Structure of Phosphoenolpyruvate-protein phosphotransferase:
Amino acid sequence: MKRLQGIAVSPGVAIGEAIVLDNEGFRIPRRFLARNVVQRELTRLHEAIARVTSDIEESRQRVSEQLGDEYASIFSAHVQMLNDPRLREELEEMIRDRHYSPEYAVSRALRRYAKVFQSLKGDYMAERANDVFDIEKRLLHRLLGERREDLAKITSEVLVLARNLTPSETAHMNPRFVRGFATEVGGPGSHTAIVAEGLGIPAVVGVGAFLSDASGGETVIIDGDEGLIILQPDEETLARYRHEVDHQRDLANRLTSLKDLPAETTDGIQVQLLGNIEFPSEAQQCLDRGVNGIGLYRTEFLYLANKGEPTEEEHYQAYRDVAEAMAGFPVVMRTLDLGADKLPALPDPEDERNPFLGLRSIRLALKHVDMFRTQLRAILRASVTKNIRIMFPLISTLIELRRAKMVLADAMEDLEEEGVPFDRDIKVGMMVEVPSAVMMMDHFCDEVDFFSIGTNDLVQYTLAVDRSNKDVASLYTSADPAVIKLIKMSIDSADAHGKPISMCGQMSGNPLYTMLLLGLGLRSLSTTPAAAPELKRLCRSVSIPECEAVAQRVLEMESSRDVKALLREELLKRLPEHID
């Protein structure tokens, strides 16, 4: 059994069969062969070994000619290792007797060899492990070719283990079958983490190198509460986690009793609970959990799920479906919030050394106005339901906001000339995600109808921490006093100008911070549908004076460690393990 610590980004526990997505993008599940194809698959293995041997010989010859035999000797070692009779016999036995696919047999056998080398001391042995990995990748490349499995096409329940997951891969995940995932890299607040929360599946990121210890088909535990993944769990550990899964299922069932009750504090103050969604299908999840609308509709999936730019009609169909499903509840649609490096329809930026400080979000939209106008036209067309609102992300200056509003006005004018109906009084808001927006809130209040605090980016830009970098992930925390003071300033400024303000970042969905946020004056929280029942339960367990007392103590603190300690203490008082 091997326990590995990462960063918890989506709560819950998942137990299941692993599917491994390695550095090369190969996904190697444990697949069994029918008896009548075993001989054919053995032949395919032999052909792959022969072709890889030829490839290595070509590399050896080329290096020998350019650098000499001394440098080419490594390739001779590769050929010798690849054609070792014991290795070939083991691979053939797995295919012939155990009916493993050649891909799985290669991955399982060679990773076992690599682990043996890694366990031995010395740089020489470490290099031999790298040689084994190189041979594995060459063989898999020949065996798989274009037959790589698509995460969207998985039809059995699995846990995905990967070096990293791209936004497009996570956008294609089906939560019915992908029950959880863990990645070697990444941090809290990354798009991968956000999608995991939206899908409601346990996820751990930033684990560090572990794929060499994992094999497809083996049982794995992902603990999204503690940030752990457990490989080859023993029976005692499996039993304990299965009990935890049963407990979480029981707790979720008990929380359904709160669906039709208001999120009202013990002293009668109403709290608006809204849902964050990424996909149109999640609108029903919001209704099932008794939220009061959608506070953040992330529209990025339309761009990530298409190889090209989505058409106006594709935008419109998705937005209309959500607006109609919510039937009178407000739906806040955030315009495109991605970097140029994430959009397959756009050329890669020429000098994007730091995407988080580069061409992304509203900046990208204003650079590609035609694409921006297409999305705005679709949102406006869907707004005939009268419950849609538009929100611009990552606004840092008044000029940016005014330019975005001008593009919106142009789209409105075009639709009017075409005789296309839309909500002429549609409300327009902006995200508060950068310190400059907080500093200029008094001026922004004159320009928009509402605000939503996006803590994922606000934390990142306030603390100068790349939220996807595991090496500095420990510095990324919503509990930092500087972040909390900026949130307080935003709420006070919006209240002073009579403008509604909500919060839609990960902080708003974490019960640890609920009392603090209510105490700071927030009365609207937008979170993933799965987190809403627990937040409602907590709201119904506290009074506003209690929350204000907690907030006052927090505002006097100097470190995130002290803030978290206090908040945990207060949370434990209100949320016992079981619902009475």
